[in-house]
UniProtKB/TrEMBL annotation:
Substrates-to-products reaction catalysed: L-cysteine + L-glutamate + ATP = gamma-L-glutamyl-L-cysteine + ADP + phosphate + H(+)
Organism per entry: Hypholoma sublateritium (strain FD-334 SS-4)
Pathway stated in the Swiss-Prot or TrEMBL entry: Sulfur metabolism; glutathione biosynthesis; glutathione from L-cysteine and L-glutamate: step 1/2
Assigned EC number: 6.3.2.2
Superkingdom classification of source: Eukaryota
Start and end residues of each stretch annotated as Disordered: 513-543
GO molecular-function terms, A-Z: ATP binding; glutamate-cysteine ligase activity
Biological processes, Gene Ontology terms: glutathione biosynthetic process
Keyword Flavoprotein (UniProt): no
Comp. bias intervals (Low complexity): 513-528
Family: Belongs to the glutamate--cysteine ligase type 3 family.
Record's protein name: Glutamate--cysteine ligase
Record key words, sorted: ATP-binding, Glutathione biosynthesis, Ligase, Nucleotide-binding
Any Gene Ontology CC annotation: glutamate-cysteine ligase complex
Length: 681
């Protein structure tokens, strides 16, 4: 969640006076970075994952699974043992990092050092994730477990869902009807962020998820668990005045979204233009992998008609005023802003010729003054637009101690805005005074319940990123279609029954098609010599070739069509090769030990089976668990007992104590019981 300063955060009325200052200096800071590093070349593939956990506290007597609010203590313990850890940690694993997250029940872990492009590193991801989980597990109480679970099913229900209990009436930052103040990380940044979003917006955030209507769900559904008549905070009337919709699950606080767990991946690129190409290449992949990893069908104790978290988080930090949302005419504010600051990206940014202007068909409000400054400084149109679009947002948390900064050596003001634009992809410039290069972060995936699955998705995306770069793949579809896919990706059962817009011919040129083809078939290049295979995943590739001479620019509408998940991942006959075959073609360019190859196959097989429907998404599996539970009354309600059994089952699956053959391959043997093991018999 960005850097945590010790300092005094300003309330919104004060913070907003510094908004232009933060933006102006943020751009100055970015321009310093640009001047120093725009020509930087040759950075190797370094990459890393971020895995988020919720710490569950089981009460076996009451049969309740609660959120343990001991984040501060747990992190303190994990950091004091960090010195000892060096001794405990196997030589081949660097000491992992644990970070706080928004929820006071959450942890984030990252590998101690980024992985490189070596195949051994690629295959160490799962054991690295396991090691991190076990380390956390080892330092929890005996009734606590760190679950990689996207949304806590009973967050915000009446009664006790945290350990210890707190009354939501004390929610002085969010003014929520459902979540107590203590749900939030106590570091000043988080309550301030929460309160300033509410203050800037002029009301509480309001999210309405359609409820899953079952046989006995009352129609219309008017939620009896909402304190419709509470009058503690001025916003308490909002629910009654229309913020809470009938037939929906109403959520009114940042914690419902930022309290979700996800799986993120960051890749360093060879240079800035490759970072831009990779960023663009992964944009259409965002919604596809959101649908394929969908893992969050239960909200505030009810089954929802959606399978994933995205719109909840987007709504949970939506600080736009009524004017910006287009509800009332613009008066005080500068822009009508179509999306929350947490949402899908709006602009492809590569300067390659395959990025045709027609693809950037989303409305794009941007700060003209900042745009002009960047253009005058020599930046190109697309990157200037990208940044000045992010910079239409106000800084939400300003610390009085750090308002004046040395713009040549700090990037704090830049990061203040950049890191509170939470989008599907993040283009990460190098921090000042560090050896780190230009990076791209892939942010749409939901976290999976086991490290085997999380590793599988990490491995798949890394290999896909290599295929994109080395085969010069062209995955562009109009960005408005990517947004349509984001909406479709969240629907119930989207992966198995939905369709998504996807590009048919993914080769930028015929030469890129033939290089992909030659690497999958008999690998003899045109000169007849045997092809030399790479020993590790490369990061730097020749620039995109110019179009073939007889290249005819097709109509944009003819370039894509609606495809099923199975077709996108596994291909569609001669029309479209499919992402997995492209990944396999890339693998064929590498020299890989047979046993490493087999391990990679296990990961790719999970992706294949999830996408062809022979294995369920976590969301579908969870939904099935709930609806087939003996306590379930076909009324959409996920009771305390169902939740307890569900989370127990998830923990048992992860440890390999319980089988879930419709979710995981039958030979999956689980993780945590044996930290060193690879997880397969
Ligand atoms: P944030 O929360 O800002 O997204 P984190 O620091 O939590 O970022 O995680 C970033 C990920 O990037 C980690 O997995 C880390 O290992 C990885 N990483 C670190 N250095 C590099 C690098 N130079 N290139 C790519 N990834 C890196
Ligand atoms: Mg995180
Ligand atoms: Mg992080
Ligand atoms: Mg983060
Ligand atoms: Mg961070
Ligand atoms: Mg991140």
């Amino acid at each position: 969640m960005g850097l945590l300063y010790l300092g005094t955060p300003l309330a919104w009325d004060e913070a907003k006076k510094h908004a232009d200052h933060v933006r102006d200096h943020g751009i100055t800071q970015f321009l310093h970075i640009w001047d120093r590093l725009k020509d930087r070349q040759g950075d190797e593939l370094l990459w890393g994952d971020e895995v988020e956990y919720m710490v569950i506290s089981f009460d076996d007597d009451e049969k309740n699974a609660k959120l343990s609010l001991r984040q501060t203590e747990i992190l303190a313990k994990l950091s004091t043992i960090v010195d000892d850890i060096s001794a405990e940690t196997p030589d081949d694993i660097s000491v992992p990092n644990f970070h706080p997250e928004y929820g006071r029940y959450m942890l984030e872990s990252t590998p101690g050092a980024p992985y490189t492009g070596s195949i051994t590193d690629l295959l160490s991801v799962e054991s690295n994730m396991r090691y991190r989980r076990n380390l956390a597990r080892k330092h929890l109480k005996s009734n606590e477990v760190p679950l990689t679970f996207t949304s806590f099913p009973r967050l915000g229900v009446p009664g006790q869902f945290t350990e210890p209990y707190y009354n939501p009436n004390d929610a002085i930052s969010s003014h929520s009807l459902f979540l107590p103040e203590e749900i939030t990380n106590p570091h000043a940044r988080f309550p301030t962020l929460t309160a300033n979003i509410r203050r800037r917006r002029g009301s509480k955030v309001a999210i309405n998820l359609p409820i899953f209507v079952d046989e006995n769900t009352p129609q219309p559904f008017i939620d009896p668990t909402i304190s419709w008549d509470r009058s503690i905070y001025p916003e308490d009337v909002e629910a009654k005045l229309g913020a809470a919709l009938p037939d929906h699950i109403y959520l009114d606080a940042m914690g419902f979204g930022m309290g979700c767990c996800c799986l993120q991946l960051t890749f360093q690129a060879c240079n800035v233009s490759d970072a831009r190409r990779l960023y663009d290449g992964l944009i259409p992949i965002g919604p596809i992998l959101l649908a394929l990893t969908a893992a969050s069908p239960v909200w505030r104790g009810y089954l929802a008609d959606v399978d994933s978290r995205w719109n909840v988080i987007a709504g949970s930090v939506d600080d736009r005023t009524k004017e910006e949302r287009g509800v009332v005419p613009l008066k005080e504010n500068k822009f009508i802003i179509p999306k929350s600051r947490y949402d899908s990206v709006d602009l492809y940014i590569s300067n390659d010729w395959i990025n045709r202007p027609e693809y950037n068909d989303n409305p794009l409000p941007y700060d003209q003054k900042l745009y002009d400054r960047m253009r005058d400084h020599g930046l190109d149109d697309l990157l200037s637009k990208h940044i000045s679009h992010l910079f239409i947002r106000d800084p939400l948390v300003v610390f009085s101690e750090t308002i004046d900064q040395d713009d040549a050596s700090s990037s704090d003001h830049f990061e203040n805005i950049q890191s509170t634009n939470w989008q599907t992809l993040r283009f990460k410039p190098p921090p000042p005074n560090s050896p780190i290069g230009w990076r791209v972060e892939f942010r749409s995936m939901e976290v999976q319940m086991t490290d085997f699955e999380n590793a599988a998705f990490a491995v798949f995306v890394v290999l896909l990123s290599r295929a994109i770069l080395s085969f010069h793949l062209n995955l562009y579809v109009p960005i408005s279609k990517v947004d349509e896919n984001m909406a479709r990706a969240q629907k119930r059962d989207a992966s198995a029954s939905g369709k998504f817009y996807f590009r048919k011919d993914v080769y930028a040129t015929r030469s890129s098609a033939s290089s992909a083809a030659s690497s999958s078939g008999a690998s003899t290049p045109s000169d007849g010599s045997p092809r030399k295979k790479d020993r590790k995943m490369r990061n730097c590739f020749p620039p995109l070739p110019l179009p073939d001479r007889d290249f005819v620019v097709p109509k944009v509408e003819d370039e894509y069509e609606e495809m099923t998940m199975n077709e996108i991942i596994n291909g569609k006959g001669a029309d479209f090769s499919g992402l997995l075959p492209l990944v396999n073609a890339y693998l064929a360019t590498l020299e890989i030990e047979p046993e490493h190859r087999r391990k990679i196959e296990q990961y790719l097989d999970l992706i294949k089976r999830r996408s062809d429907g022979t294995l369920l998404t976590p969301a579908t599996w969870i939904r099935k668990f709930v609806t087939s539970h003996s306590e379930y009354k076909k009324d959409s309600i996920v009771s305390q007992g169902i939740n307890y059994d569900l989370l127990k089952a998830v923990d048992e699956i992860e440890r390999g104590v319980r089988q879930a053959p419709d979710l995981l391959p039958v030979d999956f043997t689980g993780g945590s019981k044996d930290p060193g093991s690879i997880g397969f018999s």
